[in-house]
Amino acid sequence: MRSSGVSLAEPLDFLALLKPRVMSLVVLTAITGLALAPGSLHPTLAVISILSIAIGAGASGALNMWYDADIDGVMTRTATRPIPTGRIEPETALAFGLGLSLLAVSMLGLAANWFAAALLAFTIFFYAVVYTMWLKRSTSQNIVIGGAAGAFPPMIGWAAVTGGVAVESIVLFLIIFLWTPPHFWALALFKLKDYDNAGVPMLPNVAGERATRIQIFLYSLALVPVGVAPWLLGFAGPVYGIASILLGAKFLRHAYATLRMADGDQTMIPAKRLFAFSIFYLFGLFVILLAEALFGPVQTMIGA
C-alpha cells in the first residue's frame, strides 16, 4: 500500500506546488507596477503587499496542479510534479492552495487596500477556475484568454498603492497579455506530442503547425509596439525606449524565423529559440522599467 502523500512530502515538494519560476515573474512585474505607481506605500506595507501577491500566485499554481494532476502525469514536462509522482496527495494540494489564497487576499487587503485584494482574488479565481478548469481543456484559445491571469500582477501592484487602475497599469497588463500567446505557442510547437497525449487542445494540435506559426507572428507584431508604449507615453525613459525597440526587433526576428520554418521540421530550433528569448524579452522590459522607477530615467539623473 502506498504511504500517505503527507508523510512522503518534503518542503521542496510544497515549494514546487507554488511554481517558483512563474512566481519570480509575478513578483518582478508586481514590484514594477508598485514602483511605477504615483504615491507611496510604507516600505513594510509594500513588502507585505508583494509577499501577498507572490503567495496568491503560488496558491494559483497549487490549485492548477491539483486540478491538472491527471494530465500532468502523461506529459514529459510535468510528469515529475509532486502530485503525479504521489509525493503529495491531491486533497493536500487543494487545501494548501485554498489556504494560501485566503491568506494572500486577507494580507493584501489589510496591508494595502481591498480593491487590490479583490483584484488578487479575481486573478486567483480566473487562473484556477476560468483557465484551468474550463478554458484549458475546451478551446485552442485557452492561452489567449487565460493569459490575462498572468498579466494582472502589475495592475495589482499599481492598485496596492493607488487603490485603482490607470492607463499605465493597463499598458503593463497588455504587454504580458500579448506576450503570452507567442511564448506558449512556441512551447506548444515543440511539445505538441505532450499536449496531444494529454488531450489538451493547444493551437498546434487543433489548427496545425502552420496556422500556429502565423498566429505567433501576428501576436508578435501586436506585442512589439505595445512593448515600446511605456516610453512613448512618458512613464519610461530613453534607456527603456531604446532597449524595448532592440528587444522587440529581436523578438520579431525570432517570430519571423518561426513563421518561415519548413513544414515538418522536427528540430523546431526557431520555435525553441523564440521560446527562450521570449522569457529574456519580458524580464528585460520589466527589469529596465523597475530600474528606472527606482533610480530615475537617465535624462532626470543628468539634469539633477
Primary descriptors:
2 domains; 304 residues; 0% strand; mainly alpha; disordered N terminus; Tetracycline Repressor, domain 2; single chain
Can you lay out the helices and strands and say which pair or pack?
Blueprint: H1 5-8, H2 11-17, H3 20-36, H4 43-67, H5 69-72, H6 90-111, H7 114-138, H8 142-146, H9 148-151, H10 153-162, H11 167-190, H12 192-198, H13 203-207, H14 209-232, H15 238-259, H16 269-295, H17 298-303
Helix pairs in contact: 2-4, 3-4, 3-10, 3-16, 4-6, 4-7, 4-10, 6-7, 7-10, 10-11, 11-12, 11-14, 11-16, 14-15, 15-16
GO molecular function: protoheme IX farnesyltransferase activity
Organism: Aurantimonas marianensis
InterPro entries: Protohaem_IX_farnesylTrfase, UbiA_prenyltransferase, UbiA_prenylTrfase_CS, UbiA_sf
Helix/sheet category: mainly alpha
Termini separation (Å)?
Answer: 71 Å
Domain count: the total is 2
CATH architecture of the largest domain: Orthogonal Bundle
Average pLDDT taken over every residue = 93
**Could you estimate the helical fraction of the residues in percent?**
over 70%
Largest sheet: none
Note the total helix count: 17
Series of H and E elements: HHHHHHHHHHHHHHHHH
> Class of the largest domain in CATH?
Mainly Alpha
- Give the low-pLDDT segments: 1-7, 299-304
Shape: flat
- Using the coordinates shown, work out and report the CATH topology of the largest domain: Tetracycline Repressor, domain 2
The radius of gyration over CA amounts to: 20 Å
* CATH H level, superfamily name of the largest domain: UbiA prenyltransferase
Number of strands: 0
Strand content: under 5%
